[in-house]
Design a protein that fits this description.
The complex is a heterodimer of chains A (about 450) and B (about 475). With about 450 residues, chain A is of the alpha/beta class. Chain A contains eight helices and 19 strands. The longest helix of chain B has 15 residues. Chain B is globular, with a radius of gyration of 22 Å. Classes of the chains: A alpha/beta (about 450), B alpha/beta (about 475).
Chain lengths: ~450, ~475
């Protein structure tokens, strides 16, 4: 099925034969890879006909055809500039070009109750982790990740363990030549009444083209609490595609914050199944894009049982010819009475050529629910700009102030103060005009 | 008038009503054989004595339709339609020249209209409404023609317009909804049998509200109207469309096309009360209402306003849209959609902002009861040249009962930074407090629900012309019968 028709797009450019994959792995791992590859061949990569891809152009990525690399020597790298660099952490994982770099990571002296293993090691186990077999026919990039996974984080927190320090996960792509692809699968499992903060960031060193495709499975047992913060920065040829599948049991809490600050194509897809009563799912984020960058935020929250809540706040600022897509869906299943679901998406357009496509969607099958969503798009308030300029503040600086104010409440979702400051600094660096950068440095 | 209280008074009268317009008029119809092929299209065209260009257009549409796929994206479910099992032409039998006056009209037909309450005879002057009644695809009586003619307004069946004003029809038909637009619009382009044509000349304010009652009658006859309204520079017209249909067990397909063209400074107000047979309480039967409605604000400062109250049909698939091309043109969409029992509605609007300073307002109220599924699906698109465009959208859903569904799917696409787009949506049910308050004051559950629902829909109902507002309020009550308790 290599033919390309209107409804089918061959996965071949992104899924070349990789004979070296699977060396030293268990038979079940090879089975997972083969099955994922077969599904991918049957369904193909998403076309513009796929609802969540209708505004997202994959042509550039397919033309680059980034391919996975056979394992080589350990790349020379002496530091890992993550969001929490220098801070005390419970554990630090540094992936370089899709593989865990033990020298840069900090995995010894893990707190009691926390177990972290690289996926590459797990693939040699006698038995497959259940979550690794998770399928989703509507997300071909998930199958792509399974078929070509090189490594990942397999994290397990035992019941009742509450981590005091965050876990940092950094992914660095060295992009000097050619187009490289890195596919990872992460498994996060929190036992009952446990709690963890995970901070993920990713960056590229060099100017070559990359694709980092990650799938994360998150399982939160009753009363577990996961705070997940993600920062993505990228250059003009960086492509990042991530899908996360979360399952929330009774009373579990998921708080996720995502910052997209660049990249040719940066896509964050979060699927949350709230299957336990009184569980809550808070998703928030910002997307700040300029040049010809493209950002996608796709969320799907399903309230399957009564008395659960979800809240989503995504804010974006688009400059130059940047394009962003927000598609958020809240589904309330039949019988899920007492659901409280909220969704807000606001976008500022700073240029005439920027584009936002937003679709906040509600799908409700129960009557005793409170659901609301809102979406706005527009320019900076002319009156507010005038007010600031009338008080002697230059235009560029006035714009910067207003952009910062616009983003402030989205950042409130980040509970850890040092983390919030680190994020605020990145955001400030993004939005500060050239003339203001000097004085603030 | 306090509409809500007035309505509550009506509830008792309505309590016994099920579908009060469910009856079949036995009139000899001249019907083409069932099925769809080029011969049927030629038959329709010949029956209508159409010019060559129109037949060619129909055939072009038909050939295109054969290559199209039935759309599946709407949140509605129904068994596949057998397009070869329907009748595409059925005209009430009339004398060769058509009726000269009302006396010549089949009395059976007139009685039908009376039951429907169409102000055709005595009520003509009282209601001040000109009626172009469409009965099974062919218009049989047109009133107030003279008064309209004095103002220079053309209001006639579209087949008559093809004959008498071919230059206008040829110029505008398909200009807003091209023959290749979508599956059902293309089907309509191939087989449309009638509909209304309105032309309001420059600077004329149409002296009365124009009204057409569509009515599906003969069994198995899909009805394919095509309505074309043109408001020339600086003119104004208000058009009312109301629908009822007889009770029937088999699903009937209705695929109409409505095209509106508003030139510079012109305004078109299009109001619909749709009350087709929704199927029985078990979801058997009912009309499939797959309609394409679109208007274009061609000139500067033009305005198109859609108001709809959708209470009937088993399935409603309808997105009255505005293309805001002229600078500072205005588009409005006010909608109430109610689904009860097994009804499904997927409805909304598209506002395409092309010109600078264009503005649009969308107010949508969806009410789901029983096992009804109600979806608002809308698009607001701001194109790069629409500087300073403005949109405000509000979609509210109300759920009555545990087995219904309410869905909101708004698409917002903005390509101009000076445009401001706002969307908000809420979902809620009738609160116990509200019901308790009403009951305490002596209202029954049903009265209370009707009262609350009417309040919920007020913003939309107030946009309806007077004649329709009253009927619409009654309909809300009837549609929600048995939804509580």
């Amino acid at each position: 099925m290599a033919t390309s028709t209107r409804n089918f797009r061959s996965p071949e450019p992104l899924a070349p034969a990789t004979a070296w994959l699977g060396d030293g792995e268990a038979a079940w791992a090879a089975g997972l890879r083969t099955a994922a590859r077969a599904r991918l061949a049957a369904h193909g990569l998403p076309t513009a006909k796929a609802e969540t891809w209708r505004h997202t152009n994959l042509n550039r990525l397919l033309a680059l055809a980034p391919a996975p690399e056979a394992p080589g020597g350990t790349p020379a790298l002496d530091h890992a500039p993550g969001l929490l660099a220098g801070e005390a952490v419970a554990a630090r994982l540094v992936f370089v070009d899709g593989r865990l770099n033990p020298a840069l990571s900090q995995l010894d002296e893990l707190p009691a109750g926390l177990e972290i293993r690289p996926l590459a090691a797990v693939l040699g186990d006698g038995q497959a982790p259940e979550a690794l077999a998770q399928e989703d026919a509507t997300r071909p990039f998930h199958d792509l990740a399974t078929a070509l996974m090189s490594d990942g984080m397999v994290l397990e927190l035992s019941p009742g363990t509450v981590l005091e320090r965050p876990i940092e996960c950094v992914h660095i792509a060295l992009a000097d030549e050619g187009a490289k692809a890195h596919h990872l699968r992460h498994l996060i499992r929190l036992g009952a009444e446990s709690a963890a903060d995970i901070v993920e960031s990713r960056l590229t060193l060099g100017t070559g083209a990359t694709l980092v495709n990650e799938s994360t499975s998150i399982d939160l047992a009753a009363g577990a609490h996961l705070s997940l913060t993600r920062l993505y920065e990228g250059g003009a040829e960086d492509h990042g595609i991530r899908q996360s599948f979360a399952r929330l049991d009774k009373g579990a809490r998921l708080e996720a914050f995502v910052a997209l600050l660049g990249g040719a194509l940066n896509r964050e897809e979060i699927v949350a199944e709230v299957v336990g009563e009184t569980a809550s799912c808070d998703l928030a984020g910002v997307y700040l894009l300029a040049g010809r960058q493209h950002g996608d935020v796709i969320t799907e929250v399903t309230h399957a049982v009564p008395d659960t809540t979800s809240n989503q706040v995504f804010k974006g600022v688009l400059d130059d010819r940047a394009q962003a897509v927000f598609q958020g869906r809240v589904t309330v299943a039949p019988g899920a009475q007492g659901t409280d679901g909220r969704q807000l998406n606001k976008t500022l357009l700073l240029s005439d050529e920027a584009e936002i496509d937003t679709k906040p969607e509600l799908e409700i099958y129960a009557d005793d629910v409170k659901c609301a969503h809102g979406a706005t798009t527009g320019a900076l308030d002319e009156d507010a700009l005038f007010y600031l300029r009338a008080r002697g503040i230059p235009l560029a600086r006035a714009r910067h102030l207003l952009v910062e104010a616009f983003l402030t409440d989205a950042l409130e979702g980040v509970t850890s103060a040092p983390l919030r400051e680190a994020l605020a600094a990145r955001i400030q660096a993004w939005s500060a005009p050239e003339d203001a950068k000097g004085e603030e440095a | 008038m306090n509409a809500s209280i007035d309505n509550a008074d009506h509830v008792e009268d309505l309590a016994g009503e099920r579908y009060q317009y469910g009856f079949v008029t036995d009139i000899e119809a001249e019907t083409a054989p069932p099925g769809l092929n080029e011969d049927i299209i030629r038959f329709i065209s010949a029956k209508k004595e159409e010019p060559e260009w129109l037949l060619d257009w129909r055939l072009k549409a038909y050939r295109h339709w054969l290559e199209m796929e039935e759309p599946e994206w709407a949140k509605v479910a129904y068994p596949p339609i057998d397009f070869q099992d329907a009748y595409y032409y059925s005209a009430p039998k009339t004398s060769a020249d058509g009726p000269k006056s009302l006396d010549e009209v089949d009395p059976e037909l007139l009685r039908t209209y009376e039951k429907l309450g169409i102000p055709l005879v005595e009520q003509q002057m009282l209601a001040g409404v000109a009626v172009d009644a469409v009965f099974d695809s062919v218009s049989v009586a047109t009133t107030f023609k003279k008064k309209l003619a004095e103002a220079g307004v053309i209001f006639c069946p579209i087949s008559e317009a093809v004959r008498d004003h071919p230059e206008l029809v040829q110029k505008y038909m398909g200009s807003v909804v091209p023959y290749s637009d979508n599956y059902y619009a293309t089907l309509n382009s191939a087989v449309f049998t009638d509909g209304s044509f309105v032309y309001v000349p420059k600077g004329v304010r149409c002296p009365m509200e124009l009204s057409t009652y569509f009515r599906i009658n003969a069994a198995n006859t899909g009805q394919f109207e095509r309505t074309l309204i043109i408001a020339d520079e600086g003119s104004y017209v208000s058009y009312l469309e109301g629908c009822t249909a007889p009770m029937r067990d088999e699903n009937q397909l209705h695929a109409a096309v409505v095209e509106l063209v508003a030139h510079k400074d012109a305004e078109i107000k299009y109001s619909t009360v749709q009350n087709w047979y929704p199927g029985d309480a078990n979801g058997v039967g009912g009309i499939y209402n797959f309609v394409t409605k679109r208007g274009i604000c061609e000139g500067d400062n033009a305005k198109i306003s859609w108001t709809q109250v959708e209470t009937g049909s088993a399935i409603t698939w309808k997105y009255p849209s505005c293309i805001l091309k002229g600078a500072n043109s205005v588009g409005e969409f006010y909608s109430v959609a109610i689904t009860n029992n097994y009804q499904q509605a997927d409805t909304g609007t598209k506002m395409i902002h092309l010109g600078p300073g264009t503005r649009s307002t969308i107010i949508s109220k969806g009410i789901s009861a029983g096992r009804g599924q109600n979806t608002y699906r809308g698009l607001v698109r701001i194109q790069p040249k629409a500087h300073g465009a403005r949109n405000y959208t509000q979609c509210d859903s109300m759920l009555i009962g545990q087995e219904c569904g309410a869905h909101t799917v708004p698409y917002i696409e903005s390509r101009n930074h000076s445009a401001q787009v706002e969307h908000e949506a809420t979902t809620a049910r009738i609160s116990e407090d509200q019901l308790f308050y009403c009951r305490q004051r002596g209202l029954s559950d049903e009265e209370a629900v009707t009262l609350i629902v009417n309040g919920f829909c007020r913003e939309v109902l107030k946009e309806l012309p007077m004649e329709f507002a009253v009927e619409a309020q009654k309909l809300l009550g009837i549609t929600l019968e048995g939804a509580v308790g």
